[in-house]
Amino acid sequence: MNIKSSILLIFLSFSAFAQKPDMTLRYDEPAKLWVEALPVGNGRLGAMIYGDPNHEILQLNENTLWAGQPYRNDNPNAKEALRQVRKLIFDGNYAEAQDLVNQKFFSGKSGMPYQTLGKLHLDFKNTGAVTDYQRTLDLETAVATTQWSRDGVAYTMEVFSSFPEQVIVVQLTASESGKLNFAASLTREERAASFVDDKNRLRLQGTSSDHEGVAGAVKFEAQVKAKTSGGSLSQSENKLEITNADTATLYISMATNFKSYNDIDGNAEAKAMSFLDAASQKEFEDLKGAHVADYQSYFNRVQFSLGETTSNSETTDARVANFKDGNDLALVPLYFQFGRYLLISSSRPGTQPANLQGIWAEGLKPAWDSKYTININTEMNYWPSESTNLSELHEPLIQMIRELSETGKQTAPEMYGASGWMAHHNTDIWRITGPVDGAFWGMWPMGGAWLSQHLFDKYEYTGDTQFLDSVYPILEGSARFLQDFLVEEPEHNWLVIAPSISPENAPYSDHPESVTAGATMDNQLVYDVFTKTLRAAKILNNENELLTRIEASLKRLPPMQIGKWGQLQEWMYDWDNPEDNHRHVSHLYGLYPSNQISPYRTPQLFEAAKTSLVARGDESTGWSMGWKVNLWARLLDGNHAYKLIKDQLTPSIKPDGKQRGGTYPNLFDAHPPFQIDGNFGCTAGIAEMLVQSHDGAIHILPALPDAWDKGAISGLKTRGGFLVDLEWENSQAKTINITSELGGVCRIRSYEPLKGDGLAKINGEVENGFFQTPEIPEPLIANPQELNKPELKLVLEYEMNTQAGKTYTLTLEQ
């Protein structure tokens, strides 16, 4: 079944049982703050639109515009200090170990910042009071629209970022002839100059910033061409003047000299000009039609409704403000789809992966440089890519992993004397793999290990063995590094990662240092890399000496441990502080996104993970709350997951101007400041509440909140290549349509009895390898007699044989 027919089937099946919800963000005044502006993007080009009818601003980004140039940040002194650091750790001298890491492991280069290209200004010449103002972002078309009236004339501005044509397009219209009068100009705060060339193209040329001793060498170019109907077009110094026009269309092209992480020999001017020349030959409606068709080929794959609302006419910021104490359920599908909108807009095949702010950054040095933080944030950006049916958009991250496996091959031997490849907790467009930011945050050699999970996870959804074969060397390379880096700790003779940290956290109760050995998350990551490498090798019929070695090492990894207050231990020792509300919950990686912890296979660990999560608390940074939505969904507690969604959909900006974790007026996630990972995390979490497939079966409505007693979703994707459409009433599945893309056995888990052709109740192991679950060693438990048993709903399991391309309908058995 091809993509177009699949989308049509999804749309028809959804529309048959649910009214399509309104997918519009709307506001009744211009943006004053950047986090009130509306984002458009095509994966490469982004703009933030303020919607000001007097002085409009489009803040512009091009996703390869970063400070600096190709460079390395490895420190070869680490290798000679490694043995001493490990000895200090195993002797309990953590402060000395951390000091030595700071002295010997860091280069002084902590990564280059992502940078804005500049701003396009539209200064309107018409005077008079503005009335009938509205600005919107239509998630179904990816078009931002601003409308207003002045002196009886209605004005409309539409903006979209076209992937097919690789330009941003702006059209302005007036309801009366000859009423459009404005000047367009381009600005940037440093290292750029603007001018109008002899072909009436408004242009901005410049070079990226120097940073940490690395000279800026990314050359960039923006070009704007205007076409008018009626009136005149002229130039004045560095501005385009549109006078007495009926309509005006602006074509905005941007490019840099970036070709790859190690090559900046491109021609920014020629690239920008070629896109501009091609696009400007086409009329606005043709450009818009192609843009909408391209965008909807992704967006329309999933439809989601929780019923009608009376709040659609309210502004979106007002809906967010009223959400926690109201009953505006329709805001949930809007927020869910906004996350998918952001991924479509910030990550396309051939672009850079979405960074800490997607592709939207306001200044020259955004928060945390808007880099790739790979100890959670970058991975979270791509959590919705497979489950919400956007698999192609995963490709930019996969490509970055390919590139990091090349640069990481230098870091592994140079810093640690190891084979394979690795990365620490942060990288940038130049694919650095050395540590950054100091030992407390940066002494984490597991960034490559976490990223590597995406390689096998993608295969589990797509079943693409050709893809798996192409990335297997990367997965194996990660396993090689871990095998070489593991060291025997003296107390239990376990093999552990040392030195390392539990990302960005420290026990505090016993010592304030983060540097340690055998942190729980590290053990979980090693287990996953090793087992996925073994599974991939078996699928591909690969044989080599490494597989025997990692099979032996798996038996010597530390088991997960349950500490003295019933918690899943974060560290190798029982150091956890029950009052620790840290934003990172790294030791719960085994619950989500991994599938090591299960209510059915590992009930003791399941309960311990729950104890840890309760102690961590709910309200936190926005991205942390997004992660917790997923964790509570995996804990099968829909009401608590929904409570976290409400916490996340709380206004970040308080009446006194201070900020908290939550949501900005434009639905951007707030750490604060803006981090896009929280948007993506919550979208993935909502999908996880409705369908799960990590634990040996497709679990239908595993974590449905009481408040969502009626609804419908279509187009969610599961492991094994199944598409799931659901309609439910009275909190029970009414109709389930499962489309098999790969064929094979489909196992289904449900709280209610189901019926359907070929459906049979079953127990035991599933035959479909895509539903294979890991065999987790028994945990070490400090106080076994005090452990609670999970209170779980009774589940029923079914199987049916499927054929590729066919859809199977299941209903509730009365």
Give a verbal description of the structure.
The protein has 814 residues and is α+β, with helices and mostly antiparallel strands. Helices cover 30% and strands 23% of the residues. It has 19 helices and 35 strands. The strands form 8 sheets. It has a 9-stranded antiparallel sheet. Strands 2-3-4-5-10-15-14 form a 7-stranded antiparallel sheet. A 6-stranded antiparallel sheet has the order 17-27-28-29-35-31, with helices on both faces. The radius of gyration is 27 Å and the shape is globular. Residues 1-17 have low confidence and may be disordered. Pfam families: Glyco_hyd_65N_2 (PF14498), Glyco_hydro_95_C (PF21307), Glyco_hydro_95_cat (PF22124). Keywords: Signal. InterPro entries: 6-hairpin_glycosidase_sf, 6hp_glycosidase-like_sf, AFCA-like_C, Alpha-L-fucosidase, GH95_cat, GH95_N_dom.
CATH topology of one domain: Glycosyltransferase
What characterizes the major β-sheet? Answer: 9 strands, antiparallel
First-residue to last-residue Cα separation: 32 Å
Major sheet strand order: 1-6-7-8-9-16-13-12-11
Uncertain segments are 1-17
Number of strands: 35
Tell me roughly what share of residues is in helical segments: 25-40%
Secondary-structure-derived class = alpha+beta
How many helices?
19
Radius of gyration: 27 Å
* CATH domain class of one domain: Mainly Alpha
Q: On the 0-100 scale, what is the average pLDDT?
A: 96
CATH architecture level-2 label of one domain: Alpha/alpha barrel
Strand content: 15-25%
Task: Give keywords.
globular, 7-stranded antiparallel β-sheet, alpha-L-fucosidase activity, 35 strands, single chain, Glycosyltransferase, 9-stranded antiparallel β-sheet, alpha+beta, signal, 6-hairpin_glycosidase_sf, 19 helices
